Amino acid sequence: MEAQTLPRVFLRPPTPTDEAALLHVNQASIGHHTPWIFPPTTAEQFSAYLDRCAQADTWSRLVCQREDGAVMGAITLSQIFYGPLQSAYVGYYIGAAYARQGFMREAIALALDAAFGPLQLHRIEANIQPGNHASRALVQRLGFTREGYSRRYLFIAGEWRDHERYAMLAEDWTDHALG
């Protein structure tokens, strides 16, 4: 099984056997995730997540703690386009018990290594709701550049929400890579 690692984190593809672990962390983190993201919290949602992960234009990984293998969250590169665009969107979340400890910073770094390495992409875009200060600070620490503001950009939890657009280019990542 493909896995990528940094000192405290590794990424691996999700499998059907991960259902209980991922649902547990997500159910325990509803208050932490709301209103920013709504990851799978039921068996049906987990099945739909696995179906999305299997799409050709998606690269999705579980974020796991290296120390004990615990599933902490997930990261996805979606809408992967090749040709002249060579781009994807990054989405991510981590369980409340693991938040603000640097785990997601390592996970995004591993995803960027994959994006600009084996996946041969040129651009990764992160779209963040303006009030999500932790996520905005995270991508800024990683070296993403703020490129703009998209009004009513994504339909989340029954309403259109504004987002700030951040991007990382392959040539920028070589200057910011964690190792």
UniProtKB/TrEMBL annotation:
<dbReference type="InterPro" id="IPR051531">
    <property type="entry name" value="N-acetyltransferase"/>
</dbReference>
<dbReference type="InterPro" id="IPR000182">
    <property type="entry name" value="GNAT_dom"/>
</dbReference>
<keyword id="KW-0808">Transferase</keyword>
<protein>
    <submittedName>
        <fullName>GNAT family N-acetyltransferase</fullName>
    </submittedName>
</protein>
<comment type="similarity">
    <text>Belongs to the acetyltransferase family. RimJ subfamily.</text>
</comment>
<dbReference type="InterPro" id="IPR016181">
    <property type="entry name" value="Acyl_CoA_acyltransferase"/>
</dbReference>
<feature type="domain" description="N-acetyltransferase">
    <location>
        <begin position="9"/>
        <end position="171"/>
    </location>
</feature>
<dbReference type="Pfam" id="PF13302">
    <property type="entry name" value="Acetyltransf_3"/>
</dbReference>
<keyword id="KW-0012">Acyltransferase</keyword>
